[in-house]
């Protein structure tokens, strides 16, 4: 196959990873209007928990479900115990708390589970490599899972009253409270959901990049770039953005700037989008009144 | 208060040394970190941060010194081993090393981890004449007795390893087109240099390169890029996570190059199984250690000695982690040097013994691979043997190869 | 060592303090800063030198993040650039250390200004995100092939710390470590003085006004864009000078010395020391240097966890940091005394 097409396929494959993490980032933005720097570390911890379930002998999908539940509770607890007390503090405090969580969760994961690379099983085994070997059954399956999650999220936020209430609580807490929405419950739910989606991303990514405590570190920045590119408040946009970043990064790495500067490509995408089109390619322009 | 401590120390050491010959007394009085009952050895390792998977080496060494003490110590003294965390950050390595040397007054430094980290203290320890022994890094700059007489590496350098691979390629496929994938840091660059050493002028014509960063999520793009050049040989200098990815991806895209993998990343449990044991068939590496998962060593007396040690002193250690066999080898070398010291653990004598190790075999090293040193040659391990993955274990082939520096 | 710098802050807290009282503080501060020269052995002096350097880096961060409200998680990048400018000039061009300092400051100031431009359009979290990616990207850029001839690539560069001059060694016995401490102290004191002058004057009030009430500040006729970009430039400059000092003190630079964890520890140091506080920056520097060691002694297994817990506890319990605590304790003592 043509080398360019292969690069394109490699980019799409990597982009799938970014897309699933970007979706988790957008999710928490929808629910809290915040960008959680510790999102990657939380997802990695969830994936280790899933591995523990699997090693304990549970079938994959049971472990998957259990991990979703545990992650949901973990996310909600983080909101209750750590974010709630500083809810009205300045944004600097929030950034500080995120950084603190990043340090705690990241190091805790390494401490408990060790730093050696581990295999994480895929539910989509069987069926050999396809498309010149660049897309495995797992990668295809995980793209499917990402899209499935996307559809669910979309339906949840647009078609259910709970989803609407969550968006309202994040968008304008004061007005939401006035119409009878329990804003604090919504926030906890939002954190829980975001952590659960993050755990899905982690479980889909781990079979490809292998599981270790620093698994998400590199991915997170690319995923941020994808989320911003697509529009931070737009789940389908974030998924598209994730794929786009994957392709751009690979093509630029292979043909333009060289592989040493791939990360800088992501950085330029982030800055470029924020400066030129802050709402992202697919995002809505939001006006804020002062 | 410092002075008092030093006086005390000299006093007690002198008391012990008194019955011995006069020159010995003089030496013992000058020995920091050595008391009548104890030898204090210092080290740094990444106990926190991204490189902390190597911290098990320190655990292994602590276990070995514990065993040594249980067996009565060395030269009538117990060994105290202090390891500080540098988080793999060079400025902190300097800080912690100065803490060991100036505050804790250790006798010498042993097995500090990492190339950039040891770089930061290289000049300091040599100015102070503190032995800086058997470092946990495979850079080739540590064997430079003329300029840095107090620093000594241990394992064969990555550069020598790359030279061995390249020579093997030239023997097997003189007209090969070589693809080189290396991590863009000091570790990966040594593979680049090793290949350059052997090919010289032909490098440009024969080799295509691609690099990866530790922050890259995958290396699919690099593999595709290299395959597209039509190369029929692939040499990889990457850390375990990317090694597993590379083995799997090369197999999946149907590329069948003659493939070499750095011996940093050939652990069965950490690399080969994650990659898929059948996908790595034919992969070549070279090693100086026995692979603990290789059935050939199931009843090997040396490896049994190591297994008993693990069982007794590090019962919760992961037996699949080859940092433990590494640690066992480097620890045994250190203990040999201490035994050679007799009763004189002054820095001069420790260094003198370290640079005069007569060739010896170690329990966890391949037969024929010797540990040795001479005053003008600090390459402690100079031999390796090529081995090939057969789908379930590493199969050695060819003779033990002497690398450069011998 | 800190008292030189905290004199002004304390004086500001009690504006009616007499000149005599101020001089007493100054003398005490000077004594406290110089005492370690004789009291500490060389290892601790080295640690203290690094703490002075780190506190200078935290001060730089505090100017843009604390006083001006632009959150930066990437100040390690400026620290690295300052260190590299000095190292390159010293190792490749044989400059004297002192000559490299203004150069490092100028380069970092310009880079800071350039980063400040896109920062204008970014608010809070987004700026944090962009600067964070800067912190991750800069070490990779430093070892890039195009710069390798200068930066020494992944191997880094070796340099020598400034030797005590002959006229000084002829009069007093001074070791290189002691002299390095003095150099760091003097440079830091100058930068602190500069920052203090900047903060307590018109510019400082304007910085804080744009942080707290941007719209009102603009309505008052302040040029917010110019203020913000200049704040970034000054901030990067100060952190860059700290980087230059660290290159000399450590005598070695390599990309691995400036990972994103450095940026994070500067940020943590600022929060723990005290946001928007000059005195706080001093505590911040001490924290950055000494707490990892303390954390290590509490739990060998996970110093990072303890570091994170300390950060969150401070945000919850002492949001104005150690400096705020000290100020309150002093105020209470002062209140009781009068």
From TrEMBL, chain A:
Family: Belongs to the binding-protein-dependent transport system permease family. LivHM subfamily.
InterPro entries according to UniProt: ABC_transp_permease, BCAA_transport_permease
Taxonomic classification: Bacteria, Pseudomonadati, Pseudomonadota, Alphaproteobacteria, Acetobacterales
Transmembrane parts of this sequence: 6-29, 60-83, 95-116, 136-157, 185-209, 215-232, 239-257, 263-287
Compartment list: Cell membrane
Membrane topology: Multi-pass membrane protein
PANTHER family: ABC TRANSPORTER PERMEASE PROTEIN, BRANCHED-CHAIN AMINO ACID TRANSPORT SYSTEM PERMEASE PROTEIN LIVH
Protein name in UniProt: Branched-chain amino acid transport system permease protein
Keywords from the named record: Amino-acid transport, Cell membrane, Membrane, Transmembrane, Transmembrane helix, Transport
Oxidoreductase recorded as keyword: no
GO cellular component: plasma membrane
UniProtKB/TrEMBL annotation, chain B:
Domain Leucine-binding protein: 38-390
Keyword Signal applies: yes
Alphabetic keyword roster: Signal
Signal peptide: 1-17
Pfam families: Peripla_BP_6
UniProt-listed PANTHER family: BLR6548 PROTEIN
Entry's family note: Belongs to the leucine-binding protein family.
Protein name: Branched-chain amino acid transport system substrate-binding protein
Species of provenance: Roseococcus suduntuyensis
From TrEMBL, chain C:
Localization per record: Cell membrane
Keyword set includes Transmembrane: yes
Source organism, top-level taxon: Bacteria
Keyword match Transmembrane: yes
Alphabetical list of CDD domains matching this protein: TM_PBP1_LivM_like (cd06581)
One annotated GO molecular function: branched-chain amino acid transmembrane transporter activity
Keywords: Cell membrane, Membrane, Transmembrane, Transmembrane helix
TM segment ranges: 23-39, 45-64, 71-91, 97-117, 124-142, 179-199, 231-254, 260-292, 304-326
Major place of residence: membrane
Protein name in UniProt: Branched-chain amino acid transport system permease protein
Organism: Roseococcus suduntuyensis
Lineage: Bacteria, Pseudomonadati, Pseudomonadota, Alphaproteobacteria, Acetobacterales
């Amino acid at each position: 196959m043509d080398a360019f097409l292969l690069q394109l396929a490699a980019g799409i494959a990597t982009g799938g990873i970014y897309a699933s993490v970007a979706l988790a980032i957008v999710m928490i933005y929808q629910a809290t209007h915040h960008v959680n720097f510790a999102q990657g570390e939380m997802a990695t911890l969830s994936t280790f928990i899933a591995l523990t379930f699997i090693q304990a002998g549970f079938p994959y999908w049971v472990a998957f479900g259990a991990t979703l539940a545990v992650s949901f509770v973990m996310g909600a607890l983080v909101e209750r115990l750590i974010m709630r007390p500083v809810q009205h503090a300045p944004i600097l405090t929030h950034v500080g708390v995120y950084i603190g969580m990043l340090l705690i969760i990241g190091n805790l994961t390494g401490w408990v589970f060790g730093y050696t690379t581990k295999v994480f099983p895929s539910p989509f085994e069987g069926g050999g490599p396809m498309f010149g070997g660049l897309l495995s059954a797992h990668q295809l399956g995980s793209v499917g899972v990402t899209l499935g999650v996307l559809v669910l999220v979309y339906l949840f936020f647009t078609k259910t009253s709970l989803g609407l209430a969550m968006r309202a609580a994040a968008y304008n807490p004061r007005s939401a409270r006035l119409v009878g929405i329990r804003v604090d419950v919504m926030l906890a739910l939002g954190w829980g959901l975001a952590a659960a989606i993050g755990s899905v991303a982690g479980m889909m990514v781990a079979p490809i990049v292998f599981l270790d405590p620093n698994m998400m570190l590199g991915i997170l920045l690319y995923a941020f770039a994808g989320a911003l590119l697509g529009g931070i408040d737009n789940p389908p946009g974030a998924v598209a953005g994730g794929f786009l970043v994957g392709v751009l990064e690979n093509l630029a790495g292979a043909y333009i700037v060289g592989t040493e500067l791939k990360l800088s490509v992501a950085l330029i995408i982030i800055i470029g989008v924020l400066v030129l089109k802050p709402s992202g390619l697919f995002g809505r322009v939001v006006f804020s009144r002062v | 208060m410092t002075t008092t401590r030093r006086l005390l120390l000299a006093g007690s050491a002198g008391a012990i040394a008194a019955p011995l010959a006069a020159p010995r007394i003089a030496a013992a009085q000058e020995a920091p970190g050595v008391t009548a009952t104890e030898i204090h050895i210092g080290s740094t390792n990444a106990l926190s941060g991204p490189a902390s998977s190597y911290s098990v080496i320190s655990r292994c060494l602590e276990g070995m010194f514990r065993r040594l003490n249980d067996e009565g110590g060395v030269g009538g003294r117990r060994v105290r081993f202090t390891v500080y965390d540098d988080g793999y950050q060079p400025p902190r390595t300097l800080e912690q090393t100065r803490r060991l040397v100036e505050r804790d007054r250790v006798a010498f430094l042993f097995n500090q981890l990492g190339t950039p980290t040891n770089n930061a203290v290289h000049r300091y320890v040599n100015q102070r004449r503190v032995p800086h022994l058997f470092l946990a890094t495979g850079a080739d700059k540590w064997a430079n007795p003329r300029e840095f007489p107090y620093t000594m590496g241990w394992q064969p350098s990555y550069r020598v390893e790359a030279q061995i691979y390249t020579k093997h390629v030239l023997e097997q496929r003189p007209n090969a087109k070589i693809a080189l994938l290396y991590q863009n840091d000091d570790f990966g660059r040594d593979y680049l240099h090793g290949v350059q050493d052997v090919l010289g002028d032909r490098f440009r014509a024969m080799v295509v390169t691609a690099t990866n960063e530790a922050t890259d999520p995958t290396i699919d793009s690099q593999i595709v890029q290299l395959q597209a050049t039509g190369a029929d040989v692939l040499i990889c200098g990457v850390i375990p996570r990317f090694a597993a990815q590379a083995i799997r991806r090369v197999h999946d895209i149907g590329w069948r190059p003659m493939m070499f993998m750095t011996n940093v990343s050939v652990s069965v449990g950490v690399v080969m199984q994650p990659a898929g044991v059948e996908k790595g068939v034919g992969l070549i590496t070279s090693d100086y250690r026995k692979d603990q998962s290789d059935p050939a060593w199931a009843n090997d007396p040396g490896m049994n000695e190591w297994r008993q040690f693990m069982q007794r002193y590090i019962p919760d250690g992961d037996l699949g982690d080859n940092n433990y066999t590494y640690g066992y080898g480097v620890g045994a070398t250190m203990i040999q040097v201490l035994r050679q010291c007799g009763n004189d653990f002054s820095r001069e004598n420790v260094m003198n013994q370290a640079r005069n190790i007569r060739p010896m075999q170690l329990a966890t090293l391949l037969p024929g691979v010797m540990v040795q040193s001479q005053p003008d040659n600090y390459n402690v391990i100079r031999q390796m043997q090529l081995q090939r993955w057969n789908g379930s274990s590493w199969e050695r082939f060819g003779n033990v190869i002497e690398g450069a520096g011998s | 060592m800190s008292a030189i710098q905290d004199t002004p802050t304390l004086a500001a807290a009690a504006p009616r303090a007499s000149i005599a009282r101020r001089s007493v503080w100054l003398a005490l501060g000077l004594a406290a800063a110089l005492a370690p020269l004789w009291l500490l052995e060389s290892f601790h002096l080295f640690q203290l030198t690094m703490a002075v350097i780190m506190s200078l880096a935290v001060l730089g961060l505090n100017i843009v993040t604390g006083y001006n409200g632009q959150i930066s998680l990437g100040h390690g990048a400026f620290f690295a650039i300052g260190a590299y400018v000095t190292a390159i000039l010293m190792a490749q061009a044989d400059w004297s250390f002192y000559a490299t300092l203004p150069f490092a400051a100028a380069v970092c100031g310009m880079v800071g200004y350039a980063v400040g431009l896109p920062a204008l359009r970014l608010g809070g979290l987004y700026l944090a995100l962009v600067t964070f990616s800067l912190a991750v990207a800069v070490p990779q850029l430093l070892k890039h092939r195009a710069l390798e001839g200068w930066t020494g690539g992944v191997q880094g560069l070796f340099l020598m710390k400034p030797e005590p001059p002959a006229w000084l060694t002829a009069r007093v016995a001074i070791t290189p470590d002691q002299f390095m401490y003095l150099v760091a102290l003097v440079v830091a004191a100058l930068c602190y003085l500069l920052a203090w002058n900047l903060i307590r004057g018109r510019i400082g009030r304007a910085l804080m006004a744009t942080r707290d009430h941007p719209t009102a500040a603009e309505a008052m006729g302040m040029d917010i864009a110019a203020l913000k970009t200049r704040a970034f430039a000054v901030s990067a400059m100060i952190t860059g000078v700290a980087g230059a000092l660290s290159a000399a003190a450590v005598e070695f630079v390599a990309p691995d010395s400036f990972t994103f964890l450095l940026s994070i520890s500067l940020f943590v140091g600022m929060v723990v020391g005290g946001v928007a506080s000059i005195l706080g920056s001093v505590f911040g520097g001490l924290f950055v240097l000494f707490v990892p060691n303390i954390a290590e002694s509490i739990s060998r297994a996970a110093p990072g966890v303890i570091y994170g817990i300390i950060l969150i506890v401070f945000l919850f319990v002492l949001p104005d940091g150690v400096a705020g605590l000290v100020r309150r304790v002093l105020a209470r003592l002062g209140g009781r005394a009068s």
